[in-house]
Amino acid sequence: MSTRIAFLKGHGTENDFVIVPDPENAIDLPPAAVAALCDRRAGIGGDGLLHVVRSAAHPEAEGMAAEAEWFMDYRNGDGSIAEMCGNGVRVFARYLQRAGHATEGDLAVATRGGVKTVHLAKNGDVTVGMGRAVLPDGDVTVSVGERSWPARNVNMGNPHAVAFVDDLAHAGDLLSPPPFSPAAAYPDGVNVEFVADRGPGHVALRVHERGSGETRSCGTGACAVAVATARRDGADPTATGTPVTYTVDVPGGTLVITERPDGEIEMTGPAVIVAEGEIDAAWLDAATSA
Ligand SMILES: N[C@@H](CCC[C@H](N)C(=O)O)C(=O)O
């Protein structure tokens, strides 16, 4: 392997990512390497990592290669794997545009959650077709310290627990994953969103992400929040035929989420590349084996 590995740094509403272009899937990125790169003091720093691989070159994506040339091999900041990352896929598309692999307009991206259609707009916004939400039955409770809230179980390809709170400050410091019950609701862990109303069609959230901790934004989380809020408010576009749109404020910005009558959810927000450079492969080797 070369002694230098190219990387970029980007964010979507301040959900930030280390981007590692690796078209032929030649770079070994075990969990310890990802955690080292995402470390904010000893590494580059990021909530997660976007490994950019041609679908045909990745065993998890080769079946999608006919539909989508590029696979977003997404990793959480602790090195764990997740099914989908909504902010990540916008930033991934922005990287492809910058690298000359995509132009304004529509683009298909393979993810572990299936092929997603991304629209790169002239004004700089990026819209993603996030698929449909699944809302499993059953009551869920999440807690922080002495406080507990009922939560809505929403699956956006990855798992979410959405709790409505009177005040986002009630979620406390969110330094560790909020406990939930029953354990069987989320056998692989969960992303927890705390939501407060801001006005008609307008909410704000804080999120504790599985594998990353509290982050400044979560795209799949914002979609889960929009659907949970719609159902709480008695709105279901699949029943009424009327689309529902929510503005979702996150600590790092604003996302706009629309659920269409066919159940498809679209998310629009910014995606920014802020830097590019080279990783020292010897450092990465040492950090990985430490
Ligand atoms: N920040 C992401 C979600 C990333 C994955 C999540 N932490 C998980 O483990 O499911 C987003 O923008 O959706």
UniProtKB/TrEMBL annotation:
<dbReference type="InterPro" id="IPR018510">
    <property type="entry name" value="DAP_epimerase_AS"/>
</dbReference>
<comment type="subunit">
    <text>Homodimer.</text>
</comment>
<feature type="active site" description="Proton donor">
    <location>
        <position position="85"/>
    </location>
</feature>
<feature type="binding site">
    <location>
        <position position="191"/>
    </location>
    <ligand>
        <name>substrate</name>
    </ligand>
</feature>
<keyword id="KW-0028">Amino-acid biosynthesis</keyword>
<keyword id="KW-0963">Cytoplasm</keyword>
<dbReference type="GO" id="GO:0008837">
    <property type="term" value="F:diaminopimelate epimerase activity"/>
</dbReference>
<feature type="binding site">
    <location>
        <position position="15"/>
    </location>
    <ligand>
        <name>substrate</name>
    </ligand>
</feature>
<feature type="binding site">
    <location>
        <begin position="219"/>
        <end position="220"/>
    </location>
    <ligand>
        <name>substrate</name>
    </ligand>
</feature>
<feature type="binding site">
    <location>
        <begin position="209"/>
        <end position="210"/>
    </location>
    <ligand>
        <name>substrate</name>
    </ligand>
</feature>
<comment type="function">
    <text>Catalyzes the stereoinversion of LL-2,6-diaminopimelate (L,L-DAP) to meso-diaminopimelate (meso-DAP), a precursor of L-lysine and an essential component of the bacterial peptidoglycan.</text>
</comment>
<protein>
    <recommendedName>
        <fullName>Diaminopimelate epimerase</fullName>
        <ecNumber>5.1.1.7</ecNumber>
    </recommendedName>
</protein>
<feature type="active site" description="Proton acceptor">
    <location>
        <position position="218"/>
    </location>
</feature>
<feature type="binding site">
    <location>
        <begin position="86"/>
        <end position="87"/>
    </location>
    <ligand>
        <name>substrate</name>
    </ligand>
</feature>
<comment type="similarity">
    <text>Belongs to the diaminopimelate epimerase family.</text>
</comment>
<dbReference type="Pfam" id="PF01678">
    <property type="entry name" value="DAP_epimerase"/>
</dbReference>
<dbReference type="GO" id="GO:0005829">
    <property type="term" value="C:cytosol"/>
</dbReference>
<keyword id="KW-0457">Lysine biosynthesis</keyword>
<feature type="active site">
    <location>
        <position position="85"/>
    </location>
</feature>
<comment type="pathway">
    <text>Amino-acid biosynthesis; L-lysine biosynthesis via DAP pathway; DL-2,6-diaminopimelate from LL-2,6-diaminopimelate: step 1/1.</text>
</comment>
<feature type="binding site">
    <location>
        <position position="158"/>
    </location>
    <ligand>
        <name>substrate</name>
    </ligand>
</feature>
<keyword id="KW-0413">Isomerase</keyword>
<dbReference type="GO" id="GO:0009089">
    <property type="term" value="P:lysine biosynthetic process via diaminopimelate"/>
</dbReference>
<feature type="site" description="Could be important to modulate the pK values of the two catalytic cysteine residues">
    <location>
        <position position="160"/>
    </location>
</feature>
<feature type="site" description="Could be important to modulate the pK values of the two catalytic cysteine residues">
    <location>
        <position position="209"/>
    </location>
</feature>
<feature type="binding site">
    <location>
        <position position="76"/>
    </location>
    <ligand>
        <name>substrate</name>
    </ligand>
</feature>
<dbReference type="InterPro" id="IPR001653">
    <property type="entry name" value="DAP_epimerase_DapF"/>
</dbReference>
